[in-house]
Specification:
By secondary structure, this protein is mainly beta. It has helices at 3-6, 9-18, 36-39, 529-532, and strands at residues 46-48, 51-53, 72-74, 77-78, 90-96, 112-117, 125-133, 136-146, 151-163, 170-182, 188-203, 207-210, 231-246, 249-273, 278-286, 289-306, 309-326, 330-338, 357-374, 378-394, 401-405, 408-419, 422-433, 452-465, 468-484, 490-510, 513-527, 546-555, 562-571, 574-575, 583-584, 587-600, 603-612, 620-622, 627-630, 635-643. The protein has a 22-stranded antiparallel beta barrel. Strands 2-1-5-6-3-4 form a six-stranded mixed sheet. A two-stranded antiparallel sheet has the order 30-31. Strand 10 (170-182) and strand 11 form a beta hairpin. The longest helix has 10 residues, at 9-18. The radius of gyration is 25 Å and the shape is globular.
């Protein structure tokens, strides 16, 4: 049967438009098939389209940032701290820890986040996603455009408005992206991408910094920032990466660039907040800023086969540069305020910015690594790198401050098949990472400290039984601890050590039921002179000793076009201040929803209803620098996806 003749007029027209290269066979689902629960291999962190689940995320793994650690990868290649972010290009991400991170050459502590770029495929597809709800309204348009067997393009455009209902935060984003693919022969692929995100309005409510041992009152369900304090940002991201194989050699490489252009940026703060709500209301107004990141890697690999045993040797050169400015802000104190009451709309002040300080960090190096695999027996890898790091801080009219580090870094992993379906693993990794910046309340706000020498140890078991996968692992991550001292100077206060146990259970225990559940039992501790003197507490700010998640997606057997989903996220109590005298209670949030799969003019479609924070619990998030923001209240959102 000629499927072209059976296509309805609208779909036929769309397919004809997309099929400039002669491809007119309708494609399998693209956006309608996105489902983070059914896609996840474990509970450690999976992002698919606009859905994210798991214990960890791109921003936080085992209590630390993989972005700061330079652990972002694409096609296994080093991207430093660059995250594409633009969903017209990036289709998802996966957090790799423990055994799942052992296949990566030259890892660093804090886990690995593997990004994926939207595929081109062999058939033309036009996907539309419509959002309607209490926190997001807008549209995504994504296309797969195969031109011939060697060349194709993925491209998209979207406009979305985000609203914290009923709090009043507001942001508007226009995203554009294009990601061509070239496959001149088998074993060779080159991908490139270019993306632009324009955010003409990004307005948010204040951070609250608490003084004392009591939490501030609940914030009102109304906007309590300043309407004029709206960020205006533009994000530009681009890159090219690929690989080619010849005989038993493989050459791979990539170059990546990310630019953040902040024409306007503000931070609204309640500072010195007390339990009765009394505080001071401050707005930090920043001068225009440009932050640039560049990273890349070239790698040559040689595979040697010895009967059933496989050996691979990697030679790699990689590096990255990050430049940005800090300082020069205008700090406007609007006087006393009450947390929990809507502040007045103050007139936008005329300010004069001070001179800025330039911060430039450069890290590059080379290394050699070996990975051996014996099917049914186990795997072993070892790698060593020589890294050169240089940070230059250039204050206006003063002598440059230069810090350098040239450490040897190494890693080793071992995995052994001990029983049928049971794999035991262990690893050690040493790393060097760029540090974060001082928070807005710091005297030296936005300043970035020197590089940090870090280490990580892993040991655990993975057990596959039937359709289920169980992972139980222990970890120990150690890093220098930077935070605010009693004088509000962001500085090193000691060493932080996160030891813990992480558990993941995932799979399909019964037909149609997808389960992803996990937990982290962690003992985060700060040690050093500041702790010994009683200046800071033993617990790092914002780190919980326990967290757990459970996600379920169930296809109704009597109505297979309909599935229901449930997500439960628990976070234990945390220290809310450096001295540990303020405690943030634990919380458990419940999300629920469902998907209905159908067709629109024979095109696959999916309608999804999702309610987050189902029971409308009031809870606080707290950053590592001690800033408080409330968890979003209950929100309902509807998403319609169609693949033409």
């Amino acid at each position: 049967m000629d499927r072209r003749r059976s296509a309805p007029p609208l779909r036929h027209a769309l397919m004809g438009l997309l099929a400039a290269g002669g491809f007119i066979t309708p494609a399998v689902a693209q956006r309608t098939g996105e489902n983070a629960v059914t896609s996840a291999d474990d509970a450690f962190g999976t992002s698919v389209g606009n859905e994210t689940i798991g214990l960890y995320s791109t921003d936080e793994v085992r209590g630390f940032s993989p972005v700061a650690a330079g652990n972002i990868r694409i096609d296994g290649l080093y991207m430093g701290g660059i995250v594409i972010g633009n969903q017209r290009i990036q289709s998802g991400s996966t957090v790799r820890v423990g055994l799942s991170a052992q296949g990566y050459a030259f890892p660093a502590p804090t886990g690995i986040v593997e990004l994926s770029v939207r595929p081109v495929g062999t058939d033309p597809v036009l996907s539309s996603v419509l959002y309607a709800g209490q926190n997001q309204n807008g549209i995504d348009l994504d296309a797969q455009l195969p031109i011939n067997k060697q060349l194709g393009i993925a491209a998209g455009i979207s406009f979305n408005q985000y609203i914290d209902f009923p709090g009043g935060d507001q942001a508007r984003y226009l995203d554009i992206g294009i990601a061509p693919a070239w496959r001149p022969r088998e074993g060779t692929e080159v991908r490139a991408y270019f993306g632009l995100q324009d955010a003409p309005i990004d307005r948010s409510t204040p951070f609250t910094f608490v003084e004392g041992t009591e939490l501030p009152p609940h914030l009102p369900n109304r906007f309590h920032g300043q309407r004029w304090a709206a960020w205006k940002n533009r994000f530009t991201t681009m890159g090219v990466f690929g690989h080619t194989s010849f005989d038993q050699w493989r050459l791979s490489g990539g170059l990546f660039r990310h630019v953040v252009d902040s024409e306007r940026s503000y931070n609204t703060l309640y500072v010195n907040a007390h339990g009765d709500g009394s505080a001071r209301y401050i707005v930090n107004i920043h001068p225009p800023r440009l932050t640039e990141q560049n990273a890349g890697e070239i790698r040559l690999s040689r595979q040697l086969d010895e009967g059933p045993r496989h050996h691979v040797v990697h030679l790699s050169a990689r590096g990255g540069i990050r430049t940005g400015d800090f300082g020069g802000e205008a700090v406007v104190d609007f006087g006393p305020a009450i947390v929990g009451e809507v502040p007045p709309e103050f007139p936008e002040p005329d300010v004069v910015f001070g001179e800025e300080t330039n911060d430039k960090a450069r890290q590059y190096g080379g290394g050699i690594a070996y990975h051996g695999r014996w099917p049914g027996v186990g795997e072993f890898s070892v790698g060593i790198q020589k890294v050169r790091y240089k940070k230059t801080i250039s204050p206006p009219g003063e002598t440059e401050i230069v810090t350098r580090a040239e450490p040897w870094l190494w890693n080793s992993t071992l995995a052994v098949n001990v029983l049928k379906g049971v794999v035991a693993y262990a690893s050690y990794t040493k790393g060097l990472e760029d540090s974060g910046v001082a928070p807005e309340i710091a005297v030296n706000r936005s300043e970035a400290p020197p590089a940090l020498l870090t280490s990580q140890r892993d040991i655990g078991l993975r057990y596959a039984f039937g359709p289920m996968r169980l992972v139980v692992g222990a970890f120990d991550v150690r890093k220098p601890y930077f935070n605010l001292d009693p004088n509000l100077v962001y500085t090193q206060l000691g060493t932080v050590r996160h030891r813990g146990l992480e558990i993941s259970l995932s799979g399909e225990p019964v037909k149609g039921l997808s389960l992803v559940t996990g937990a982290v039992l962690m003992k985060p501790r700060v040690t050093g002179q500041a702790v010994d003197l009683g200046l800071v507490g033993k617990m790092p700010v914002g780190q919980a000793e326990r967290s757990a998640t459970a996600y379920v997606d169930y296809v109704l057997p009597f109505f297979p076009d309909l599935s229901i989903n449930l997500g439960i996220q628990h976070l234990g109590k945390r220290a809310g201040s450096v001295d540990n005298l303020l405690t943030v209670p634990g919380r458990t949030l419940v999300n629920a929803g469902g998907r209905y799969r159908f067709e629109i003019m024979k095109a696959p479609a999916s309608l999804r209803l999702q309610v987050t924070n189902l029971f409308d619990d009031y809870a606080w998030n707290v950053t590592g620098g001690g800033g408080f923001r409330r968890v979003f209240p209950r929100r309902a959102n509807l998403t319609l996806s169609v693949d033409f």
